[in-house]
Design brief:
The complex is a heterodimer.
Chain A: H1 5-40, H2 58-65, H3 67-98, H4 105-113, H5 120-130, H6 137-144, H7 159-184, H8 188-196, H9 201-212, H10 214-229, H11 233-238, H12 250-259, H13 264-289
Helix pairs in contact in A: 1-13, 3-7, 3-10, 4-7, 10-13, 12-13
Chain B: H1 2-41, H2 45-48, H3 63-71, H4 74-105, H5 111-119, H6 126-139, H7 147-155, H8 157-171, H9 175-183, H10 188-199, H11 201-217, H12 220-225, H13 234-245, H14 249-269, H15 271-284
Classes of the chains: A mainly alpha, B mainly alpha.
Chain lengths: ~300, ~280
């Protein structure tokens, strides 16, 4: 704005130069593939057939009658519904417990954060070992108090909850740190006023802390939902979708259809559904995130 | 009065003790799986199968690791993962700091809309684009190569997020610095490399941690693209090794320990930066 006109013209050229690597790369690596997914999703392209036919919305109407797709959607929803509340309650409690500085708090925070930097595949394999039916750590400990542990990973009712548990433990640290930094931004005077009024700690948490950090709670919720919809490595390492198809989730189904049965068309149609859900959730998240985004005007 | 304050103090001490016990229990639950992994990796096969299990490995053996390095290409996997993640982090820094600087400090037509377009890359995750990418890369004969694993994150989620993060940082740099450089006759490239990049070192570190970890964790794309064992990354190599070994948990856990240890060591030396970086990515991504 302050600059002279001639330097402004020269400037704008540099603007395009500077963004061009990212912009061109984005078009080729992200945008075109997404468009291609839509197009492929409207065909019956399969590596097992030589000819490709255009189906229009055929794959999408087929999804509505695909029992396995219903199960996949149900599983993904179940996964999300189990993960969200447990994640919020535990992370809020941990953040409240560890937000103030006391001796050793760094160690405790680090301990809870350690799984966050562990690779998902390692984490999944490690818990598969721990959840083994015979000889697994969990069932051994249950055995010590005379409880016969179930077949955690080979039980259709337990496969998803176990995967949720494993995902939950892995992400606690990250969400806890998010909540701690939000809690530290709550003005101390609110608490002082509450103390003068004789409000209990619990009352302070629900009447001051929680409303003040509501935006963070909302963000964590959306991030967790998107993450739940993209779950793959945990499922592949823990149960491989099983037993049967009882732990098939969105990405696992896409992977199976595309890279085991080579039905690129049908798998792309599922990807389109997933993409639309992610876009809606991300837009909601951005709308709420506005307060973090700098506005020039 | 005195007894009252004494009571309060006692109450305080009890509270503290309860808090420490609670925290210790939580830390134990979080860290025990890691202990279990590491201790299994130094047990013999017969002792892994023993019931009740051995809480402390005896005899202590490093045979599992010897097997890992002599009969399995784990060192190769490690090298593949490290160099791919390093190139991803490097690439993300370059393209997103350039773009972020331009969006923050250079006025040009359409910059707002172009910024939003690049930002939309954050909603185009690999899970959605994997099929066309696989098809394109196989047409170009680039399966079983690391090319796709390197460029996908750079121009996908990591690059989009990086552009956003760098722009947010460069906006906070006062315009006077830029003007001063211009008066001295410095070009944008000079201002960018000599003034702006050094100022951004903390944000760059955040972005390095974030993109390195993203690439390091990547599983779907390597699984789809790679089929030759010499090209495997650690997560893929470990997963296939685990399926192959079945219940030889001593070997599987040795592989898992080896895959985790380097990152854990780096993490323990810079925990604060890790936590800050990753939570920032969570908030803004």
């Amino acid at each position: 704005m302050k600059r002279k006109d001639n330097s402004l013209n020269k400037d704008s050229k540099w603007g395009y130069y500077f963004i061009s690597p990212m912009f061109i790369g984005f078009i080729i690596i992200s945008l075109l593939p997404v468009l291609a997914t839509f197009v492929i999703g409207m065909t019956d392209w399969s590596l097992l057939n030589s000819d490709i036919n255009f189906l229009g919305f055929g794959n999408f109407t087929k999804l509505f009658t695909d029992k396995l797709f219903y199960q996949v959607a149900r599983n993904s929803l179940y996964f999300t519904v189990l993960l969200i509340p447990s994640n919020l309650v535990i992370c809020l409690a941990l953040a409240a417990l560890l937000k103030n500085n006391f001796k050793g708090v760094g160690f405790f925070r680090t301990a809870i954060f350690t799984p966050v930097v562990t690779t998902v595949v390692v984490w999944g394999i490690l818990w598969k070992y721990i959840f083994q039916t015979d000889n697994g750590l969990i069932n051994t400990i249950l055995g010590m108090i005379n409880i016969a542990g179930p077949q955690w990973l080979y039980n259709a009712k337990l496969a998803i909850p176990v995967a949720v548990f494993v995902t939950l433990i892995k992400g606690l640290g990250l969400n806890m740190v998010l909540f701690i930094s939000a809690m530290k931004d709550v003005p101390e005077v609110y608490y002082e006023a509450a103390r003068i009024d004789g409000a209990s700690k619990l009352r302070q948490f629900f009447s001051i802390t929680l409303p003040c950090i509501a935006p963070s709670v909302f963000l964590v919720t959306i991030i967790t939902v998107i993450g739940s919809l993209k779950v793959f490595a945990q499922i592949d390492t823990l149960t491989a979708g099983g037993p049967g198809t009882s732990s098939f989730v969105f990405v696992y189904y896409i992977y199976q259809q595309a890279f085991k049965y080579y039905k690129f068309g049908y798998a792309s149609a599922i990807s389109v559904v997933l993409f639309i859900i992610i876009v809606i959730l991300t837009l909601v998240q951005w709308k709420m995130r506005k307060r973090w985004v700098y506005h020039e005007n | 009065m005195k007894t009252n304050s004494e009571k309060a103090r006692q109450k305080n001490i009890i509270k503290r003790i309860v808090r420490y016990i609670g925290c210790t229990l939580i830390a134990l639950v979080m860290l025990f799986p890691f202990y279990w992994m590491a201790s299994t990796s130094v047990k013999t096969y017969t002792n892994v199968m023993k019931f009740p299990p051995q809480w402390w490995p005896n005899p202590f053996t490093i045979d599992n690791f010897v097997d890992l390095f002599t009969n399995q290409p784990f060192l190769k996997y490690m090298w593949n993962s490290v160099y791919i993640a390093a190139l991803v982090a490097f690439g993300v820094i370059i393209v997103s700091s350039l773009a972020g600087y331009a969006f923050a400090k250079i006025k040009f037509k359409g910059s707002n809309i172009l910024f939003l377009i690049i930002l939309s890359g954050m909603m185009m995750p690999i899970e959605v684009t994997v099929i066309p990418l696989f098809v394109a890369l196989s047409k170009l004969n680039l399966v079983n190569s690391h090319f796709g694993l390197i460029i996908q994150p750079i121009f996908g989620y990591c690059g989009a997020f990086g552009t956003f993060l760098m722009r947010q940082f460069f906006i906070t740099v006062p315009d006077e610095l830029l003007e001063a450089g211009k008066i001295d006759g410095a070009s944008h490239i000079r201002i960018f490399t000599k003034i702006m990049l050094p100022l951004a070192s903390s944000t760059i570190a955040t972005l390095i941690i974030f993109s390195f970890l993203q690439s390091w964790n990547d599983y779907l794309l390597p699984l789809v693209l790679l089929s030759e064992s010499t090209t495997y990354t650690l997560p893929l190599g470990l997963k296939l090794f685990a399926s192959e070994m079945g219940v030889e948990w001593n070997l599987v856990m040795a592989g898992a320990t080896f895959s985790t240890l380097p990152m854990l060591i780096v993490f323990f030396f810079s925990q604060r930066k890790f936590m800050e970086s990753l939570s920032m990515a969570g908030l803004k991504g």
